[in-house]
């Protein structure tokens, strides 16, 4: 038989060996591999070179008689300890065979690893399949059109038939989808992207690959969004919506529609977030939502940095409503006389940069309720302000990790300062497992 792969492919065959070598020989002749790893029990190791106890030629000799010579050094035997111990066999396969399989594939477009689990005990076959689930490999099984013992025995010599060589990543793609969904739902959007990206590299062209690509784009939307790359997230959302129908490979039409509605709504939101125009309430809500996700991940230093930025941004949004669009260059003439005197501003300066506290002082002087709320809150305290947690953070000016209590205290003060609108407007990321349901 001809090798079904590309003419320049390098093929490594890993095959279990049982007491009937005919099927093993058929599988090898079908592939004509460049290298063979025979996985044998203590009882079947002798069948490779032969002869067996009845004087029958070994596998290598049978191959030679069929016109396929396996050169010395192009094959090896891995002898398992116990053909009936599934756990031990999986462990041994991962330790002794997996490194060779991964090392073999230098160019995925050219290098192939085929795992043939035809021979050996049921534990040997099951163990090799379990061990190879995440290998860069294909599967092969040699069945037959005719068996002994009325159809329930071994395959009759000469009646062998290759059964569906398959890529485990194709057959078990759902494992990787579930793993990506679990990571995504835990806030590890980057991890979900990486899992699906890896699955895409290992699946062949077709409906599965297209469906995985669409899920990859879904996770990218929220990975980019989580990094405040709103324009990139919006572009990923548009790409996803073009291909959303490919998800019918995994889920029902109703669930495809759920995906479409959800991402359409988020795409509209992302379009607004990606627009310029200075400080806006929606951006503050997005930063706050990001901080909540960091809280759930117990990244409290990151959460505090975001909540601090929200307190600062709230003042910037309020000042913009008074015609002051940048706290980096506030026109001195827009500052009431009493504040100019209190701040002892240099004579002749036309603009001044305002830190957070002075921004709120200015708002209060302009009669803005937000400024007054800040000045009456714990946030304005010189010694006990929850804002100090950010200043003392190892990510800011200090050398202390922020505690959960510190982050929660700042979060609550921020919510009180902003009022109910902040919690009402926060973008909430979807749960991928909910959208997928049971598939």
Q: Note the total helix count.
A: 21
- pLDDT < 50 stretches: 1-6, 145-156
CATH architecture of the largest domain, by name, is 3-Layer(aba) Sandwich
Distance between the termini: 38 Å
Let me know the number of strands: 8
Order of helices and strands: EHEHHEHHEHEEHHHHHHHHEHEHHHHHH
Q: What structural class do helix, strand and pairing data support? A: alpha/beta
The CATH superfamily of the largest domain is identified as Hypothetical protein VC1899 like domain (Restriction endonuclease-like)
What would the CATH topology of the largest domain be? Answer: Rossmann fold
Strand residue content: 5-15%
- The oligomeric status of these chains comes to single chain
Can you tell me the CATH class of the largest domain? Alpha Beta
What is the helix content? 40-55%
